[in-house]
């Protein structure tokens, strides 16, 4: 209940700096009075905060670049497209990827590589990832950007608030702390402090991306309460409540893939029976569609390739594949009906590789969901929560990671951006 | 993200008054320096806050009563056992109940009555409830207590932040705003402002009671993340995350009773199939145990009576009842496994009338839960979340309501307790 930083002068100033930066980042360019109005401070209260953020290079006067650095006095404020960048990385079962986004949220550099990570030890995977990180860091340095944080998306359970992958079954990783293997990539250099490292479940980062980037292009802003479902090899979900990720006591929330669908069904790798993954997981669908998972992977390697194969077959009218996808949609609808009854979200978002299968899984999914959330629907919900398809698709986790990596700057702008201002930087 | 009341002087003072009052209420008696240390303020900063709360009669010097009103200077502080009280009310299918708790959390008055509320219109039910409220208000007035708020527990969906019961199937209420029918009970009188009215789902209030009162008597404090399951006629659940109720976008979260368990099972009143209520709801269990629900109710009227009958039969070794309860436990375990995979709570608490059936439902419930949450268990959770039985049992919702009714005082101590201090009171 206590505000972060408490009610000390220092804490209040830090929060207000963060509010100004976030407001301009989300809604800028904005005039100073518009910023003041949006955060509920007086113009006189906002002026020194804006000046500090301008001096630190986090804000710029809009138009300054165009007019050779002068800007219109009292002109509009925007966040800088130089300065801090968030580094996002993704460890997939079949690929690695890294990207960097600036404070404006634009992707400034991006690399990806196919990689046979399944049952590969963390050491070699992290060495290869570190090389990709160095490539992206060099690329953005040429544009005046420096990394402010690194977030890594992994397909597995991550201990809450830690950098340890507790269990990533499809990588074969258990209790693997990623910090040592990424120490080279996060080390302090050139007078900058060491990079804060975040390790996070990919579905959670996909949901964060949806929250920040899901709107735009004429689409409505995503609601602050939704369940985000995605799939690569497994099925993952993330629960967003009031605009925040619900992480669970240990950080393991969102294991939709192991929600029981048909309790007497086949035994699952988790030890349970009839889990959602047994009906809607990638391997189950490939098998039900008459495609051997191994062959499909060999013929079409790379991220999202197996799912791409399913989509092509379905589009070509392969009835076994179409039926398998319909059945996957039914199972997803049953599991999601449980989630909706428990959580009452405003929307269910299909993201990750599932987005590309929406034409075939949505009808049966929506039918089950409507049937099984009728009490609430009947009571004013008008047909249950909206089901939408993410426009980010398989890019969600990587983009979400890069945005998450900017959090330290957005939460505490001057500590992160101006090491010379504070002796505390070196220890963060 | 913004602190309640913002960072104005007024907002900070209000928050600090609330912190002092909550700290003494939860941990008192405490000396002034101990209060200061616990809330992170200086002694000089705490002194005027304490003085204001003493003047308003919300705090007292411990020992003052015993020494004829003087108290030891600099002695320990406690919350008053006079002054504001929270009024809690419960509308059950078969009963009505009202109680009042003081700032110390002690029940100071309580009345209950059997009532045939099933399919009764709100008007007569609320008139009868108002009479019970008047009875309790008179009783506590004689002890120097005055109501500071009223919260009403109902077995149904309540619109978030409103006083409208959207759907209470077992009462037969739809879109029923309870405020007009309780206007007499909440009206301003004797110079006091009108009582703030809260209407809330009974399972949510049961969970709040568990959060505040579940510890003590040598039991550990409840964790801040748990799923609370209860039953009267229906099955309800409440989800507590970081010590806060998860309400859902519309306020309808926690509908565990309509989570699909066996998707091809019998049609449920909600329109779905194979919902948990079809296997673990009171009527389903009575029927499976060979007891006609109607006859059981007629033979043993009153709150919790049907469940009491089941417990007696099971204790007497009635094999049909024991088997029905085991099967209900299995179904509960399957539905809760879904909830645990999604939410990763630290505990599952059996509350309400279910608490009394724990000896017969727990073994099968725990077996399913352990089987179906194995990924997480295997990954450091040491056997999944703890399953506990509430010691509050069927009293939970009523006690939770009374505590919820004190929230306005605890959130904003002086506005609520000292109408003369502020012109804003009349409009709250």
Notes on the protein architecture:
Chains A, B: This is ROK family protein. Chains A, B: InterPro entries: ATPase_NBD, ROK, WH-like_DNA-bd_sf, WH_DNA-bd_sf. Chains A, B: Pfam families: ROK (PF00480). Chains A, B: Belongs to the ROK (NagC/XylR) family. The structure is a homodimer of 428-residue chains. The longest helix of chain A is centred in the C-terminal third of the chain and has 25 residues. The N terminus and C terminus of chain A are likely disordered. Chain A is built from 16 helices and 15 strands. Helices cover 40% and strands 19% of the residues of chain A. In chain A, helix 10 crosses helix 11 and helix 11 packs across helix 12. The relative contact order of chain A is 0.12. Chain A is an alpha/beta fold and 428 residues long. Chain A has three domains: 71 residues, Arc Repressor Mutant, subunit A (Orthogonal Bundle), CATH 1.10.10; 152 residues, Nucleotidyltransferase, domain 5 (2-Layer Sandwich); 175 residues, ATPase, nucleotide binding domain (Nucleotidyltransferase, domain 5, 2-Layer Sandwich). In chain A, the strands form four sheets. In chain A, strands 5-4-3-6-10 form a five-stranded mixed beta sheet. Chain A has a five-stranded mixed beta sheet with strand order 13-12-11-14-15, sandwiched between helices. In chain A, strands 7-8-9 form a three-stranded antiparallel beta sheet, with no helix packed on it. Chain A starts with 8 loop residues before the first helix and ends in an 11-residue tail after the last helix. In chain A, strand 8 and strand 9 form a beta hairpin. The interface between A and B is large, with 66 and 65 residues.
């Amino acid at each position: 209940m206590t505000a972060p930083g408490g009610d000390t002068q220092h804490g209040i100033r830090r929060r207000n700096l963060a509010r100004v930066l976030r407001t301009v980042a989300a809604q800028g360019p904005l005039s100073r009075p518009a910023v003041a109005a949006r955060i509920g401070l007086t113009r006189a209260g906002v002026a020194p905060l804006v000046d500090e953020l301008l001096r630190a290079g986090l804000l710029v006067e809009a138009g300054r670049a165009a007019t050779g650095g002068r800007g219109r006095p009292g002109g509009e404020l925007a966040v800088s497209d130089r300065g801090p960048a968030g580094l996002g990385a993704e460890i997939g079962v079949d690929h690695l990827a890294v990207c960097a986004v600036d404070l404006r949220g634009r992707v400034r550099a991006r690399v990806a590589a196919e990689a046979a990570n399944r049952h590969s030890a963390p050491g070699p995977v992290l060495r290869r990832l570190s090389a990709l990180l160095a490539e992206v860091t060099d690329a953005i340095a040429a544009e005046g950007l420096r990394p402010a944080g690194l977030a890594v998306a992994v397909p597995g359970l991550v201990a809450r608030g830690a950098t340890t992958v507790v269990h990533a079954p499809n990588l074969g990783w258990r209790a693997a702390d990623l910090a040592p293997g990424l120490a080279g990539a996060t080390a302090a250099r050139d007078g900058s402090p060491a990079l804060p490292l975040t390790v996070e479940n990919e579905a959670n980062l996909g949901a964060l991306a949806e929250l920040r980037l899901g709107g735009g292009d004429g689409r409505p802003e995503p609601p602050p309460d939704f369940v985000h479902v995605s799939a690569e090899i497994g099925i993952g979900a993330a629960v967003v409540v009031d605009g925040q990720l619900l992480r669970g006591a240990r950080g393991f929330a969102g294991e939709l893939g192991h929600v029981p669908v048909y309790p007497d069904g086949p035994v699952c790798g988790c030890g349970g029976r009839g889990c959602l993954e047994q009906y809607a997981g990638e391997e189950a669908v490939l098998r039900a569609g008459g495609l051997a998972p191994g062959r499909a992977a060999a013929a079409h390697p790379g991220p999202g390739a197996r799912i791409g194969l399913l989509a092509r077959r379905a589009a070509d009218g392969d009835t076994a594949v179409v039926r398998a996808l319909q059945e996957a949609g039914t199972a997803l609808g049953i599991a999601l009906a449980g989630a909706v009854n428990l959580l009452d979200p405003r929307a269910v978002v299909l993201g990750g590789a599932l987005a590309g299968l929406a034409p075939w899984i949505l009808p049966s999914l929506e039918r089950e969901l409507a049937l099984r959330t009728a009490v609430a629907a009947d009571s004013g919900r008008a047909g249950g929560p909206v089901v939408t398809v993410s426009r980010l698709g398989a890019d969600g986790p990587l983009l979400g990671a890069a945005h998450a990596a900017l959090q330290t700057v957005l939460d505490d702008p001057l500590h992160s951006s101006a090491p010379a201002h504070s002796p505390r930087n070196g220890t963060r």
